[in-house]
Amino acid sequence: MTKQQLFEQIQKKRSFLCVGLDSSLDKIPKHLLKYENPVLEFNKQIIDATHDLCVAYKPNTAFYECYGKKGWETLIETWKYIPQDIFSIADAKRGDIGNTSAMYAETFFNAESSEMSFDSVTVAPYMGSDSIMPFLNFKGKWVILLALTSNSGHADFQLQEIGDDKLFEKVIKTSQNWATDEQMMYVVGATRGSAFGDVRKLAPTHFLLVPGVGAQGGDLKEVCKYGLNAQCGLLINSSRGIIYAGQGEDFAERTREEALKLQQEMEQILVKAGLV
What we know:
Pfam family, one: OMPdecase
Number of strands: 10
Protein name: Orotidine-5'-phosphate decarboxylase
Radius of gyration: 18 Å
Pathway: Pyrimidine metabolism; UMP biosynthesis via de novo pathway; UMP from orotate: step 2/2
Order of helices and strands: HEHEHHEHHEHEEEHEHEHEHH
Keywords: Decarboxylase, Lyase, Pyrimidine biosynthesis
EC number: 4.1.1.23
């Protein structure tokens, strides 16, 4: 999916919502345990209930890898179930020496070998350019680079000063030599608020994947105040606040209600900004 195609989906759905599929066997509704693959059934019902309200799905691979072979099968089948016109994100946070990163890229981008071909993958930049380039060798695929994250420990490294820049600023500046805004996005946590203004000075046209709205306390309006650009430029992720909205047999309906609330708020923001 190109940047323009993603923006067109945002305009069509009047939404820049990303639904995080952090699906855990011990948190899904208990009546689903009767299914052969409860997590897959849960994911399918979540997707059925929300696909017209969101523009992206983001399975966090840790929630699948922990179940071994069965978990990988669930991840593969979940990817296959995501509609092709919806942006898919493998939230894997990979990044290693070049030949290892090349194998990670094959894992998430090469359907012939792995049975999965996500549109994008989250990558950690700590090991530098040679750990990122193998992902960028796949035409039409995106790297979503960790920049300023939503967790409480982000300040341990990301805010440390290196010369005139904080580390996260150095990451954004340096990585723009590796790829354009047509192939690279950045993770910027919603709990960072006004820091989006600093990010936009460095990356005015890039898309930003924004976790932390909802359960982690990030404020959608504040994020948009500082982070919105001429093509929206934001994918706002909500995981727990949407997928665990209900625990009964009507959980999918409760999920839809929460997704709809966010979509309607996003629509108002897009209209006000003149983007739809």
